[in-house]
Write a structure and sequence with these properties.
Length: 506
């Protein structure tokens, strides 16, 4: 199929060159948009595989996705193919996941969370029928903030304070200064339902107790768009994006980290990689960690030093501890996504976000892809990961080499107690990913898993701008920019950044 520039893209951008640093979801989505518009685009990735947080490993016949597993709003992804008249389905198959999540508490209560109206109401009634009416009102609230915060503002750049002022009436109307937890608790009273309707901010690095109520939109996002799984794992979705990018003429260079963004005056002119490769471009966009981009890549320019100093005073989202294990046996009774809540909710979150403590208790997200796609493990075996939010290395500077194996054992104890009694005798392969791994593999500041914390005071105009304020042909894309972390977030940021770049290069 021949490549056609995206409709409405300025034809003047033809013949222009762009470089994107980093092949995360945001970097790849931006690169596809630029290349679709006729801008000759090269993506430079430090690691041996693309995907960033969505890296993957194959060990002993098991496939382990490193990061995102809950795919929402598939439309924001398929749009990247439609730009050039292609179909995402030719490169990857998305399958619906149901229930979306099973939420489980240590007293044995289960809550199956889905977008099937009747069964969701049944689940709510099981917890407390008195909360059904409140849930309906919460759903209306979630739908309203979804329209405002995601549909209208989720993929536009906030470059000046005026854009923030324009959004202010909507933010005020939806009481954006309140937290998701506070807002949900104004609608429902049951403690477990409160947790079920507020935990989602953790998926984008936010504490439900402090993240703006606007993030309640995730409920509506999942309800309308569903929860999906890429057959073969999220890594297949990444591979599909690369296939689309290369099909339309883009270039991806792997295993060669960018070391410097060169500037002349206040203009970015080229980038240099570790191997000595040098590429000139009309525009440079960084999908790498914000602090790394400014402090390390732009460190020779006063702007880099000033921004790094500012960023060091921001609040960064926590890190994660992820235990991957491949085991003998299959578990049709364990759904694809489970949340195993611990005995404390608010107290645990305060320990992670404020006190920087590795608490004795934890809440886990359990990923079980082989229940949907058995091909991700050898026959008769299962692939899992268990993830626990932990403080970032700035708040908890411990020796993870020593703590990691102990923490892994505690997680296995919990899974043994709650789900798989003989788990230890079944383990074929096991490894973990801890905060220092985020720092070393992804250049993530303090090992943060989701970049800047999604607080109202660090959102929209208050977040890193999609175009740098001083160097007008330097752009940012990904979790550190508006609207923030999560696949729909970073793909939305790519749309905002691409629009700016196309206008500027046109
Ligand atoms: C364990 C985990 C589970 C998650 N689960 C979900 C989920 O279920 N659903 C969801 O929607 N979101 C989830 N998220 C969040 C989501 O994965 C991220 O917000 C998103 O993938 C980040 O994308 P990004 O574009 O910001 O880039 P990143 O993934 O951060 O990629 C940045 C890339 O830049 C590269 N890079 C860095 N420095 C350089 C350099 N100097 N030169 C070249 N390249 C460089 C890195 O190697 C990396 O590949 C999860 C995150 C984690 C960590």
């Amino acid at each position: 199929m021949t490549q056609t520039p995206a409709s409405g893209s300025p034809s003047g951008s033809q013949g222009r060159k762009a470089i994107v640093i980093g092949a995360g979801f945001g970097g790849l989505a931006l690169a596809i948009r630029l290349q679709s518009a006729g801008i000759s685009t090269t993506v430079l990735e430090a690691r041996d595989k693309p995907g960033g947080r969505a890296y993957y490993w194959q060990k002993d016949g098991f496939t382990f996705d490193a990061g995102p597993t809950v795919i929402t709003d598939p439309n924001c992804l398929s749009e990247l193919w439609r730009l050039t008249g292609h179909d995402m389905a030719q490169d990857v198959t998305l399958e619906p996941v149901s229930p979306f999540y099973r939420l489980n508490w240590s007293d044995g209560t289960n809550f199956d969370y889905s977008n099937d109206e009747a069964s969701l109401r049944q689940e709510i009634a099981k917890l407390d029928a008195g909360d059904l009416a409140g849930y309906e009102r919460f759903l209306d609230y979630s739908a309203a903030v979804y329209r405002e915060g995601y549909e209208k503002l989720g993929h536009v750049a906030f470059l000046d304070f005026a854009s923030m002022i324009k959004a202010a009436p909507a933010l005020a109307q939806h009481q954006a200064w309140r937290s998701v937890h506070s807002m949900v608790s104004s609608y429902v009273k049951n403690e477990k339902l409160l947790q079920a309707l507020s935990f989602h901010t953790l998926l984008v690095g936010g504490n439900p107790m402090t993240t703006s109520a606007i993030y309640a939109l995730i409920h509506k996002l999942e309800k309308d768009g569903g929860v999906w799984f890429a057959r073969g794992g999220t890594n297949r979705l990444v591979a599909a994006m690369v296939a689309q990018f290369e099909r339309i003429g883009g270039t991806l260079r792997l295993g060669d980290p960018v070391e410097k963004i060169e500037t002349i005056g206040d203009k970015a002119t080229a980038v240099i990689t570790k191997s000595g490769w040098r590429g000139e471009a009309d525009a440079v966009a960084s999908n790498a960690d914000l602090m790394h981009s400014y402090r390390d890549l732009l460190g020779a320019h006063p702007r880099g030093i000033r921004q790094a100093d500012k960023l060091s005073r921001k609040r960064w989202s926590p890190s994660l501890f992820v235990l991957h294990f491949g085991i003998k046996g299959t578990w049709p009774g364990i759904p694809h996504h489970m949340i195993l809540f611990g005995p404390r909710y608010e107290g645990l979150l305060t320990d992670i976000y404020q006190h920087g403590l590795l608490s004795a208790d934890f809440s886990l997200y359990l990923h079980h892809p082989t229940v949907t796609d058995p091909s991700m493990a050898p026959e008769g075996c299962s692939t899992f990961y268990a993830l626990a939010p932990v403080p970032h290395m700035g708040k908890l500077p411990i020796d993870w080499e020593a703590e990691g194996p102990r923490y892994a054992e505690r997680i296995l104890d919990e899974i043994e107690r709650r789900l798989i009694p003989d788990i230890r005798s079944r383990i074929v392969t096991q490894f973990h990913y801890a905060p220092p791994d985020f720092a070393s593999d992804l250049a993530a500041h303090m090992g943060s898993a989701f970049s800047l914390e999604p607080l109202l005071t660090q959102s929209a105009w208050f977040r890193a701008h999609n175009r740098d304020d001083v160097i007008p042909n330097l752009y940012l894309v990904g979790a550190g920019t508006h609207p923030g972390a999560g696949i729909p977030g970073v793909v939305g940021s790519a749309k905002a950044t691409a629009r700016l770049m196309m206008e500027d290069l046109g």
